[in-house]
Amino acid sequence: MLRDVAVISLATLAAGAINAIAGGGTLLSFPALLWIGRSAIAANATNSVALWPGSLAGALGFRNEVQTLSRWLLWLMIPSLAGGAIGALLLLHTPEKLFTQIVPWLILGATVLLAGQELIAKRLRSLTSANEHPSRGWIVFAFTFQLFVAIYGGYFGAGQGILMLASLGLIGLTDLHQMNGLKNLLATCINGVAAILFAISGKVLWRDAAIMTVAAIAGGYLGARVARRLGRKFVRFAVVTIGFVMTIALFLKM
């Protein structure tokens, strides 16, 4: 009992800090729940509920930047809510055995995505520099892309922030604070609607979720201080390394 509490507390504390610095905290908190014996679907549902307050806090932290955005950009909340609900329902209708087999691939994909974040950012800069005034086609693509990102976020979630930054870059946003603010707002929509559906379904392990929520908030608060000492690149490298180790361990366990 105490061991389980210690494991998920430390993992989620680190996850909260990592999400505040570089993103990818789910690659720690979700496997921690698996490691202490929670089922894959219950672990994913619990993790989504526990980390949701972090997204909300991030959105509130960037509220001034979000208020300066064009009103139509807030329409991205619509595909975010719809996609988050679809993804959560897909998860709830996925057989436990099948999801357990998919999990290593999901973690591997999220890890590769995090590892390639810098390359994605460079590619985005080249696209947005030539696309400062996106056409209607680009905007439709961004809305569609956000829908699929939200479906993925509702289903699993690790790496969804990187995908959302890509989507926002494609429609011409270049201010990093505005992009992060809108990303956190959209993540709040995705994770919030998914959390509600998970709670209604009875899949959430509430004791674990309560412990993780407190730890995630504390980790997010400490993240800024840690960032100044370690830097984003070091944290990203550490998370990517852990992600690959977790992937190998889960493949061996299958």
Question: How would the blueprint of this fold be written?
Answer:
Blueprint: H1 2-21, H2 26-35, H3 40-61, H4 63-67, H5 77-92, H6 96-115, H7 117-129, H8 136-155, H9 160-170, H10 176-201, H11 206-230, H12 232-253
Q: What do these coordinates show?
A:
Helices cover 83% and strands 0% of the residues. It is mostly helical and 254 residues long. The protein has one domain. Helix 1 (2-21) runs antiparallel to helix 2. The longest helix is centred in the last third of the chain and has 26 residues, at 176-201. The radius of gyration is 17 Å and the shape is globular. The model has no long low-confidence stretch (mean pLDDT 80).
Amount of helix: over 70%
Number of domain modules:
1
Largest sheet: none
* DSSP E strands, number: 0
Q: Please mark out the parts with pLDDT under 50 across 5 or more consecutive residues, or reply none.
A: none
Sheet-strand content, in percent, reads under 5%
What shape does the CA trace take? Answer: globular
Q: What is the helix/strand order?
A: HHHHHHHHHHHH
Mean pLDDT metric: 80
Compute the number of helices. 12
Spatial extent as radius of gyration: 17 Å
Query: Which structural class fits the helix and strand makeup?
Result: mainly alpha
Distance between the termini: 25 Å
